[in-house]
């Protein structure tokens, strides 16, 4: 295992004179455990840059607690087993804040391992901060007090996506294609349930699950989609599994719609290029044309790394940690977890709340569409001349979904 890829030591900023807390000036060590190699490695590598960039922005005077954030990164090769080894290595190094996101199978393994570690090691508890793993079980049947999710889960995303699809009369025949692990299974499940509720006239004309990060040619899947007469594809694919799917659709002459989670993520914009305008949609908690401070950050990030920033949960993690540590007057994960429950923060698109009952962030969701960049929506990912333009916003109360979480709290 290639343990530490890069360490970011953050310079001390001038701190505010008021509100001097016990933790002011402390260094908070954080480790992100995610794939940095292999077919899906480019996604993790891009996200690593995002953590380096925003650890700097939010350190010292950048957060109300006045702490410094120090990030290191461990390549888990998208393996649950490698991730558990990485978790142990991080804990042995004294790290008490673990970050992960890519792969719900990894997330479920980490959540369980953190729960067990904390039960067996009082006084040495760690928090698990989830930026991208969206399996609803993580905040339902398998919820943990020590796990906090900053992305929107699949039930939330499908609720927004299906609400948009409901009003598209040309959608009649849907094909569901996904990666064969917990995330892909959940996308298929919630898509079928939501469409049955909102558009019972829509037919599911096909459904496939394929191996995760192993398929290099999606032409046979596109052929099946076309043969089934599908006018629309719903997919939760990400990384190479989405970019290669979109590439095969272009080359195979498929002209139907795609409803996705991750069109804006590394590789997918380049795979689409000038194709897919008005036909490829994304549902997410942000997009490339948010405006305001986010636009400034994204421009600066692109200039620094020649890359596109898209994992807004990175920002939210630093915002919530800073606010919770200030509230708790401590960097102790036990106190920080208690302070984070029910916490509300004004973020890049308004107020968001960490729901106490299941530790699922409540936030707006956006449906955006692939189109040519213009004066109104100018940001062009991967220099394609195209962009994701927002077509519908679903506020917190609309995108929220119920939880069955029966959380066991310490003490």
- One letter per element, helices H and strands E, the order comes to EHEHEHEEHEHEHEHEHEHHHEEEEEH
Helical residue percent band:
25-40%
CATH topology (level 3) name of the largest domain: Rossmann fold
Count of alpha and pi helical runs: 12
CATH structural architecture of the largest domain: 3-Layer(aba) Sandwich
CATH homologous superfamily classification of the largest domain: Response regulator
Q: How big is the Rg?
A: 21 Å
CATH class of the largest domain: Alpha Beta
Number of domain units: 2
Proportion of β residues?
A: 15-25%
Low-pLDDT residue spans: 1-20
Total strands: the figure is 15
Mean pLDDT: 94
Summary keywords:
disordered N terminus; globular; Rossmann fold; single chain; 411 residues; alpha/beta; 12 helices; 2 domains; five-stranded parallel beta sheet
Q: Can you walk through the features of this model?
A:
This protein is of the alpha/beta class and 411 residues long. 35% of the residues lie in helices and 20% in strands. It has twelve helices and 15 strands. Helix 2 (80-92) packs parallel to helix 3, helix 4 (154-166) runs parallel beside helix 5 and helix 10 (313-328) crosses helix 11. The longest helix is centred in the N-terminal third of the chain and has 17 residues, at 41-57.
């Amino acid at each position: 295992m290639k343990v530490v890829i890069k360490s970011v030591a953050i310079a001390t900023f001038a701190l505010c004179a008021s509100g001097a807390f016990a933790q002011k000036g402390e260094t908070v060590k954080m480790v992100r455990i995610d794939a940095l190699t292999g077919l899906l490695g480019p996604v993790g590598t891009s996200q690593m840059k995002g953590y380096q960039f925003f650890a700097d922005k939010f350190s010292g005077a950048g957060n109300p607690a006045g702490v410094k954030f120090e990030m290191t990164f461990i390549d888990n090769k998208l393996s649950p087993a490698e991730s558990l080894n990485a978790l142990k290595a991080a804990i042995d190094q004294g790290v008490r804040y673990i970050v992960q996101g890519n792969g719900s199978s990894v997330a479920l393994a980490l959540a369980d391992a953190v729960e067990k570690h904390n039960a067996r090691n009082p006084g040495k508890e760690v928090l698990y901060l989830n930026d991208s793993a969206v399996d609803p079980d993580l905040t339902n049947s398998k919820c943990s007090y020590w796990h906090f999710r900053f992305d929107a889960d699949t039930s939330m995303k499908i609720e927004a996506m299906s609400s948009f699809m409901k009003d598209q009369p040309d959608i009649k025949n849907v094909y569901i294609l996904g990666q064969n692990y917990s995330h892909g299974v959940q996308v298929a499940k919630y898509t079928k349930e939501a469409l049955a509720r909102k558009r019972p006239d829509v037919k599911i004309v096909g459904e496939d699950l394929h191996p995760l990060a192993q398929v290099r040619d999606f032409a046979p899947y596109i052929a099946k989609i076309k043969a089934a007469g599908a006018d629309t594809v719903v997919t939760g694919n990400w990384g190479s599994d989405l970019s290669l799917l979109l590439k095969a659709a272009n080359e195979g002459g498929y002209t139907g719609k795609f409803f996705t989670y991750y069109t804006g993520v590394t590789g997918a914009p380049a795979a689409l290029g000038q194709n897919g305008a008005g036909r490829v949609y994304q549902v997410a908690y942000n997009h490339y044309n948010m405006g305001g401070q986010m636009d400034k950050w994204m421009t600066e990030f692109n200039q620094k790394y020649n890359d596109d920033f898209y994992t807004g949960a990175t920002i939210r993690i630093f915002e919530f940690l800073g606010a919770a540590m200030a509230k708790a007057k401590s960097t102790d994960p036990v106190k920080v977890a208690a302070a984070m429950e029910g916490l509300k923060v004004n973020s890049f698109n308004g107020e968001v709340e960490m729901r106490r009952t299941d530790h699922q962030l409540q936030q707006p969701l956006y449906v955006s569409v692939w189109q040519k960049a213009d004066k109104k929506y100018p940001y062009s990912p991967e220099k394609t001349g195209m962009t994701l333009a927002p077509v519908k916003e679903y506020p917190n109360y609309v995108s929220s979904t119920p939880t069955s979480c029966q959380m066991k709290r310490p003490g």
